[in-house]
Amino acid sequence: MVKAKSLILNMVGLLVALIPLVPIGLLVALAFSESQVQPQGFTTKNFDFLKTGTLFANDPVYSKLYPNVYSVALNTFLLAVGNMLIVVLISSMAGYIISRYSFKGRSALLGSFLVIHGVPASVLLIALYYMLKSLGLLNTLLGVILVKVAVDTPLGVWVLKGFYDSIPWDIEIASLVDGASRLGAFRRIMLPLVAPGIFAVGLFSFLSGWGEYIFVYTFIQSSKNWTFSMLIQSLVGEMGGINLALIAALSMIYLVPVIILF
Question: How many CA atoms lie within 13 A of 142 on its CB side?
Answer without folding.
Answer: 6
